[in-house]
Amino acid sequence: MTTDPRRHAPATQRNREPILEVLRTVLPQRGTVLEVASGTGEHAVFLSAALPHLVWQPSDPDPGNRASIEAWTADAVSVRPPLDLDAAADSWPVDAADAVVCINMIHIAPWSACLGLMRGAARLLPPGGPLCLYGPYRRGGAHTAPGNESFDAGLRAQDPAWGVRDLEAVTEAAVAAGLRPDRVVEMPANNLTVVFRRL
Which Gene3D superfamilies match (predicted)? Predict the structure, then answer.
């Protein structure tokens, strides 16, 4: 008997529709979307089906996640095989993308992954190309909700290098890499979608 490699992230079912709603207004009409840290692959299969005019390129550094992505997207016509991509690395196994999407990564990774994401997006994107981030953020040095504060404490207990990031620090890192702020969209469950564009 074979084991199903598909992994499940319960939050995907709750946040995928609101994320799609924003992406419809931000992503280009054609081209390749690089998803950094695709995790289980559930977002990749859902978003690619809803946006069939785009080619979806998932990626993840974890072999188990890549197996899950392959299983979830096996029948998808516009999804490429997942890449082994470490956001913090100085080089990525892809040369260009028309958009970059990163969902729920930068708070569950060292700060170096956020910095690497900004540098990588600036290398790959064309002028005006979007980098779309989704997740919880602190604003003005404070959490936006008690639940986010508890979540942050739990993350830091697991790994001191993790934690909910300050939106201002993320924006500063993006600007330093050659990206400009485009928009911040309030999302359900005290999350934000943050969009930067390549200069």
Answer: Vaccinia Virus protein VP39
